[in-house]
Specification:
The protein has 510 residues and is an alpha/beta fold. It is built from 21 helices and 17 strands. 45% of the residues lie in helices and 17% in strands. α16 (347-357) runs antiparallel to α19. The protein is globular, with a radius of gyration of 24 Å.
Length: 510
């Protein structure tokens, strides 16, 4: 294989034998293959850290035939859990841990309504490593207030913020004392809290570094040997998970924390040259590989897209992307009506909707819909700017699904649940690409995906979100455009003028 000058610079740095490196890797730049090749020059034991199980398993399958017995791959959480068990013994994973701990302090109606706020706040405190040596003290009220402001968390309860924070402090301390029952965040957080001795590595490779948070950075320090080195790879323009606790400037923070040298990985091997020109609006440093096809970027109106859908030959090689989920759901039904099979990326989205379906003990779709609208009306009244977009999207998805059930002559919640289960899945649970099934996805869910042809729905209408009112939030909205653009290998089609709905309940026909 002929490696680019960017890749050769990285390999030469690895062999030079000194310090840590952060690589600014653009979309489609072959960062995974670059890191795998770099392993051949690394001495000692090597761990490649991934952000989810799917990526970790993929890395393991690639490392296995490389005859590198000292190289392995794992997620941050599985590596943390391994060290926690090694130090503390058997544990039970219980993701309702904080829920039940909070319940002990919320035994009145006023406190009960504060419970979701407290649970969320405690979760973020773990991501921000509260109580870890050298980090913010759990008893520091100002630190909790900073989380509330940064994450735009709203309190809908007849108690003060100070009172809710005091309960949050007690819940976090209780959670930290219980190392036998752990939640997902504890897998990284508790090894830091207890300062346990961890298995150390001579080399750490960190992918998707733009999504790193405080706890993950500190965990890297714990598992890197005294003379160890790190290869940190990411793309600041693909940072879109600030609402989940990731730091908006995590690449810069990592570079400073570990005193990293910096190199680029700027050639995109995925996208056609015209598509790269489009991507340069958001990431000026991205370059097209000289042998990439020319590619194409065009636009069409939503009405024309629906009219021509049957003749567009939509297949499993296509990808339809949108900022929000609701337009995807509405479009999926429109495509199904003309005989085009669809699936929507995101099994967790479906699970979230099913939880909503089980919120009230009724199987009558009319009664359920009335309760649903009242519930969301209350949620909208108390929602923060960050949460408002999520609520609006979720309600619109549910309204569209309910209308679909009614159009099929089904007026029970069981049918609604069956419809949800049939529509939402994850790409790693779909075996192969069905030639007759087209995938629709939110842009957030599309990271890691690519397609020959990408249809970008509502480009100028939905991005930026009307609720993005901070500099960091606006930057993450722009990053979504970059991610959407760089999913396309051959053709990018912007579908404009999509019909937008108002929040309202569907009316059941007699």
């Amino acid at each position: 294989m002929n490696y680019s000058s960017y890749q050769l610079d990285i390999f030469n740095w690895v062999q030079a034998g000194k310090g840590n490196l952060i690589v600014q890797a653009v979309a489609g730049s072959g960062k995974s293959s670059t890191c795998l090749q770099a392993m051949n020059y690394m001495k000692g034991n090597v761990l490649s850290l991934a952000f989810n199980k799917k990526i970790a398993e993929h890395l393991k399958s690639k490392i296995s035939p490389m005859a590198l017995p000292n190289a392995s791959a794992a997620t941050f959480h599985s590596e943390g859990l391994k060290n926690l068990i090694k130090s503390k013994g058997r544990v039970t994973v219980n993701n309702s841990k904080v829920y039940y701990l909070t319940e002990q302090y919320c035994d009145t109606p006023e406190l009960g309504s504060a419970r979701p706020f407290i649970q969320k706040l405690v979760g973020f405190a773990k991501e921000y490593a509260f109580g870890v040596e050298g980090q913010r003290n759990i008893d520091d009220t100002s630190a909790w207030m900073e989380i509330i402001q940064t994450q735009d968390i709203s309190l809908d309860a007849d108690i003060t913020l100070e009172a809710a924070i005091e309960i949050s402090k007690m819940v976090l301390k209780d959670s930290n004392r219980d190392f036998r029952n752990i939640d997902f965040a504890d897998m990284i957080y508790l090894p830091l809290i207890y300062n346990i001795s961890c298995v150390k590595y001579d080399w750490l490779i960190v992918d998707e570094a733009q999504d790193t948070n405080v706890s993950r950075k500190l965990f890297l320090s714990k598992i890197l040997s005294d003379n160890g080195r790190m290869l940190i790879v990411g793309d600041a323009q693909q940072s879109i998970y600030m609402f989940c606790g990731a730091e908006n400037d995590s690449m810069t923070l990592l570079k400073d924390m570990f005193d990293c040298a910096e190199l680029p990985l700027s050639i995109c091997y995925r996208c056609g040259k015209v598509i790269i020109t489009e991507a340069q609006k958001y990431q000026p440093h991205i370059e097209a590989f000289e042998e990439n096809i020319e590619g194409a970027v065009s636009s069409m109106k939503y009405e024309d897209f629906l009219t021509q859908a049957a003749t567009l030959n939509l297949t499993g090689e296509d990808l339809i992307l949108c900022r929000n989920n609701a337009p995807n759901v509405s479009l999926a039904f429109a495509l199904i009506r003309v005989g085009i099979g669809c699936r929507i990326e995101g099994r967790d989205i479906g699970q979230n909707l099913l939880t909503l379906c089980n919120k009230w003990k009724t199987n009558c779709l009319t009664t359920f819909t009335e309760k649903l609208i009242k519930y969301f009306d209350k949620e909208f009244e108390k929602a923060s700017k960050v949460k408002m977009q999520l609520l609006e999207d979720k309600l619109e998805v549910m309204v569209i699904l309910i209308e679909r059930c009614q159009s099929l002559g089904k007026h029970d919640v069981s049918s609604l649940k069956a419809l949800i289960e049939s529509m939402f899945s994850d790409s790693d649970n779909v075996k192969g690409k069905d030639a007759h099934i087209v995938t629709l996805s939110s842009i957030h869910k599309a990271k890691g995906l690519e397609a020959s042809r990408v249809f970008e729905i509502g480009h100028n209408q939905l991005i930026p979100s009307k609720y993005a009112n901070t500099t960091a939030a606006k930057q993450q909205e722009e990053n979504l455009l970059y991610i959407s653009t760089t999913r396309a290998k051959h053709t990018l089609i912007k579908v404009t003028d999509i019909p937008l709905r108002n929040k309202q309940a569907p009316v059941e026909e007699n």
